[in-house]
């Protein structure tokens, strides 16, 4: 089973396909793959499109980390609060303008994936 950041990134790509184009799912998969390997892709990937997949995966990872940290303080951090925190972090990194069109979708999907993971864990299923 993949972590909530990965599942959230994939679900975000599916939701964003109509708005961002059919390639967004492949871009996210390429970005996820590159997280786990040092190998370069076998085929040429447009740097503009791969950066969108990388951005979605990056936002998903940041969201997941913030969600985990906030869960130490409150059992159910609000999605709006997480959006604000992620937006602030991306603004500090100078990435907010590029991230704004996908930010809320990615945060929403990661939180949903985290809730599903928590539900599976509470049912006693082993999580990888």
Instruction: Indicate how many domains the architecture comprises.
Output: 1
**Rounded average pLDDT:** 83
Low-confidence stretches: 43-50, 120-128
Number of helices: 5
Number of strands: 0
Q: How far from one another are the termini?
A: 6 Å
Largest sheet: none
Rg, nearest Å: 15 Å
Structural class, by secondary structure, is mainly alpha
Q: H/E series, N to C?
A: HHHHH
The percent of residues in helical segments reads: over 70%
Could you characterize the architecture of this molecule?
By secondary structure, the chain is mostly helical. The protein has one domain. The chain is 74% helix and 0% strand. It has helices at residues 4-20, 24-35, 47-71, 79-92, 96-122. Mean pLDDT is 83; it is low at 43-50 and 120-128.
Topology record:
Elements: H1 4-20, H2 24-35, H3 47-71, H4 79-92, H5 96-122
Helix pairs in contact: 1-2, 1-3, 1-5, 2-3, 3-4, 3-5, 4-5
Give a short summary of the structure.
The protein is an all-alpha fold and 128 residues long. Helix content is 74%, strand content 0%. α1 crosses α5 and α2 crosses α3.
Which terms would index this structure?
128 residues, mainly alpha, 5 helices
């Amino acid at each position: 089973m993949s972590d909530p950041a990965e599942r959230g990134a994939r679900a975000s790509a599916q939701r964003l396909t109509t708005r961002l184009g059919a390639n967004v799912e492949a871009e996210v998969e390429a970005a996820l793959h590159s997280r786990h390997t040092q190998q370069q892709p076998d085929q040429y990937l447009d740097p503009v499109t791969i950066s969108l997949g990388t951005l979605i995966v990056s936002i998903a990872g940041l969201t997941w980390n913030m969600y985990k940290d906030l869960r130490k303080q409150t059992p159910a951090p609000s999605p709006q609060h997480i959006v604000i925190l992620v937006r602030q972090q991306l603004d500090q990194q100078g990435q907010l303008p590029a991230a704004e069109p996908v930010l809320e979708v990615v945060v929403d999907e990661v939180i949903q994936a985290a809730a599903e993971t928590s539900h599976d864990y509470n049912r006693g299923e082993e999580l990888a």
